[in-house]
Amino acid sequence: MKASNSLERVLAVLEVFSEQRLEWTPEELMQELGYSRPTLYRYLKTLRDAGLLMSTGNAAFTLGPRVVEMDYLVRKSDPLVVHGAPHLKTLIAERPCTALLVRWYGNKILCVASDASAAHPASSYPRGRPMPLGRGAIARSIIAFLPRARLMALIERNLADFRAVGLGTSAEEIHASLRKVRKAGFAVAFGEVTPGAVGIAAPIFDAAGHPVASLCMTIAGHLVSGADIDRIGPHLHDVALQIGQESFPV
Known about the structure:
47% helix
């Protein structure tokens, strides 16, 4: 984020927190963001008073309890979660698997709800953890339905990952592979995100027909056959369409 006004500059403080960097000292934040000490401390006080940040015992800051409260509210209010959760329970009753609802926002995709019936769930991405854009069935099930210009830009940014999973060597070859996903209505990936897991995913569309999320099943590889995948894919496609219609009515 390029901070151009006070609000964006405050939000930029929150943006630096990630799974790789859970804590930041004021000195590290000043170096990372380029803010003066008085400005940074003013922002830190505002965010701490709001509960969005909290101080740790080693004079650092981490995300605060207000984030947890907001997550609770999202679970209660997100139409995708509210309408999709019953479908997840139905899917996991059909076979040992993990079923996930994954949202697309900005340039990230992340799980917003999941349920599992497998004894050892085959998924590496719990609720809230961003997933890679260049690997896995979930990402492909969404980006394959983007307009060409936006899709090609994403392909170029994630070219190495797409090549590594065998979608093609050039942007055009990868685009051709994604056209096949679009035609099928679902995507399949074998061990690309979680070793040993098969991912099958279908897009969820909003009322305007834009891909905004994905419905995915992850299954241990030894529990699913090619014939199973041929049956599951179209079924997921139909369920994903239903979730979209329930969550984003016209």
